[in-house]
Amino acid sequence: MGIELNRRRFLSVSASVAGLTAMGGLLSACGGSGTPQKAGANSDALKSALPNYVPSTSVKADIASVAGSQDILTDPGFLTYPTDRVATVSGVPGKGGRYSTVTPLWGTVPPADNSFYQAMNEALGVTLEMKPADGNNYATIIPTMTAAKKLPDWIQLPTWWNANFNVGELAGSQLADLTPYLSGDNIKKYPNLAAIPTGAWRAGAWGDKIYGIPSFSSGFVVAGTIFFRRDVLEAKGITADEVKTADDLMNLGKELTDAKGGVWAFDDVWDYLFPSWGAPLRWKVDNGKLVHKYETEEFLAALDWHHRLATAGYLHPDAIAGDNTNGNVRFYSGKVLVAGGGTGAWNLADHQSGTAANPNFRRGSFDVITAGGNTKPKMYLGNSTSIMSYLNSNLKPEQIEELLAVANYLAAPYGTKEYTLVNFGVEGVHHTMVNGVPTATEDGKKFVQAQTFPFLASPPAVISNPGADSVTNDYAAWQAANVQHLEKPVFWNMNISLPRSMATAEAAQAVEDAIKDCYHGKKPVAEVKDAITTWKSGGGDKLIQWMDENVLQKYGTGQ
User: Fold this and answer.
1) What is the DSSP string of 260-327?
2) Is residue 53 part of a domain?
3) pLDDT tens digits along 160-197
4) Looking at the 3D structure of the chain, how many domains does it have?
5) InterPro entries in the record, alphabetically (predicted)?
């Protein structure tokens, strides 16, 4: 399903841009003051401002969602594209308004006023002037607009660029407060928006108000996991349930590595495995005080294990050399059998690439690994979305209501009549049904698959890989097996701006470089400790103190 693949590729790219630190509550560095800029926190005021979650029952999934704790929910799975495309919106949502929009686009910008845009505007009852901007230069394009106070009526601002865009200060000045329209049961006026997980709305909150409209949200977002070549390991009689601890992994490294035969057990796994020792993604709270991950024994213990993994010879030499570009090639070819990666890689395109290299290819993932002993299996929940759109504060209340009605249409669930139009265009013009799957025509490739409308609003994520049921079944089963192990990290889904003076300490580049050298076997843990000591005295302690006093003590943890 082309549009789904495009979306997944985009999310994969965005994850690499945002970095794993975003999963640990990376805070936007902006402003020169020492106060948080409208921190999105865990206050009672924010809780009352959040929309009430009302799941959609419009479309029944082949694989139902499984609930974890509050705000945690696996993605539903679809083995086929729904044939009974129900409508969730009666009539047209708009009232004839005309609005400008800007969204990022990584690809060729479709021509203005094309047949797809015309069909969408007719269905929406408004004229949306779609003006996609080059995603590669988006971070420099938008600040020019905000400086001149010339934002469009509706704009997409990816959250990993909150710092560049100074969104904390734009909220309430140039960006409209949506709280009166969406808080509590008010959202029931827009049932498709109400079906977006509450956590995603938190990601668009500043202070105790709602500003952002989420896209591509999920109740099951993690930094990544530890993948393995399921076909190869099972042929050797090794199953995932035999690998539960770090010791099991180390033993697996010894069993699988055959350097003379050109096979190594591991590619890099550090970014996705270190929390297994009980280390936080970035922050933890101990006796009411904030502690950075660098200060924890668990983090150093994880680093020691990874150093031993590399020095034992179980890590591929190209990974040690820093070659991440060819990681998939090594995995598909069987030169590496275990590798860390984002869950966005578990999809139809990956299956096609893998089976092209080896017809037996099958990706698998270990369940949450523990360090052993009494360590509890733990995986940290990531931010519920990183794609957020905003309305211009100059809009009149009736215009905001009109655009929210449009957003409700755009957020229609997977497989509905509205979703099919938004994501595939008009049947017979932009797509045709091939083996039950909407498949793009040449016009669809030019006008629809360069995504625009879903960046303004879209429904929660689903798992769907037409033609590769094993991928959908495997990924859905893995989510279901691990949903109970998901925990919210400190400052989950919170938007907080750091003073610019803290940016260097927050990045901690010298420490991160030493860490990479350590888990590649080039430096001992002692040198990382030295780098951490230097970091603490050079600004790290001030960062920790500032975060403790100005965020934790005032706004809580976000959990």
Assistant:
1) GGTBEEES--HHHHGGGGT--SSEEEETTEEEEGGG-HHHHHHHHHHHHHHHTT-B-HHHHTT--TTH
2) no
3) 999 889 898 999 899 999 999 999 999 999 999 999 99
4) 2
5) Bact_solute-bd_prot1, TAT_signal
